[in-house]
Amino acid sequence: GFADVKISVKASNVPLMVEAYRMLADDPFFADEEGRSVPLHLGVTEAGPPPAGLVKATAGLATLLLEGIGDTIRYSLTADPVEEARAGRQLLEALGLRERKGLDLIACPSCGRAEVDVIEVAANAQAALESLAIPIQVAVMGCVVNGPGEAREADLGIAAGRRRGHLFVKGKVVKVVPEDEMVDELVTWAKLIADEGIEEALRHGDATAEDEAARDRAALLDDKGADANHAEERVDVIRRL
Ligand code: SF4
Predict the structure, then answer these.
(1) Ligand 1 pocket, 142 CB below 6 A?
(2) Distance from residue 56's CA to the centre of ligand 1 (Å)
(3) Summary mean pLDDT of the chain
(4) Taking residues 177-182, what's their average pLDDT?
(5) Interface pTM (ipTM) of the complex?
């Protein structure tokens, strides 16, 4: 085994850094008598400011971690060190290498179907839920047409439609609330799930919620049609990039 030793071969060039760590991990010279690699400390050095630095560092770190290479990591961002530590924790949680302690907020990218400002609702939800320290995945989705289905793996979520919020638990719509109460309801239901569990929370659901959601979904499809995103025009713009 190894004691009091760890090797780091950081580089700011991602392919170079990945290759260097792979070579070290594969080299028997750096392995113990049982074939275990010497502990490796991973990093993409001088990655720069977010978001580009974050993408660069994550590309290198995630590639190696998913190959089983690496024992400790460091984000070297041109940012507050607290941001670096947060990024590291979030990466390990996203890869399933560290148990989630708090909120995992997911949000749809928004599109022509969005019925609310997803960025604003997601930011408000993050601010309201983060301090609760509940290990829960919450989804903020722009529309009820696809939201509950797309985010059915989330413990809890909200999808917007016709000035109302459709609250769902594991993809099942449990309550329809006014748009300006969406974030407060997310907090209430997150606490309910934390206290009583998913199954019990589902039992608190409103019996008419799924039907109301179906009606709003149908009305939205009617309003915006099947091609709410004007796909052909968008593809044309993308081709010219
Ligand atoms: S279809 Fe709805 S849920 Fe999906 S990205 Fe668009 S607004 Fe968001």
Answers:
(1) yes
(2) 27
(3) 91
(4) 93
(5) 0.97
Length of the chain: 241
> 28 exposed, middle or buried (CB, 10 Å; 0-12, 13-18, 19+)?
exposed
Among 162, 139, 156, residue whose Cα is nearest residue 218: 162
CA of 214 to the centre of ligand 1 (A): 16
Instruction: Identify the CA nearest to 112 among candidates 236, 221, 219, 214.
Output: 221
CA of residue 173 to ligand 1 center, whole Å: 16
Q: Is 108 in the pocket of ligand 1 (CB under 6 A)?
A: yes
* Beta strand pairing call for 156-161 and 172-178: unpaired
- Whether 214 and 177 have beta carbons less than 8 Å apart is answered as no
121 Cβ below 6 A of ligand 1: no
Domains of the chain: 14-94 (no CATH), 104-224 (3.30.413.10)
Each residue of 124-167: pLDDT tens digit? 999 999 888 888 999 999 999 889 888 899 999 999 988 899 99
State whether the beta carbon of 111 lies less than 6 angstroms from ligand 1.
Answer: yes
Is 126 touching ligand 1 by the criterion CB < 6 Å? no
Cα–Cα distance measured from residue 160 to residue 162, given in angstroms and rounded to the nearest whole number:
7
Cβ of 141 closer than 6 Å to ligand 1, yes or no, is yes
Distance CA 101, CA 67 (A): 24
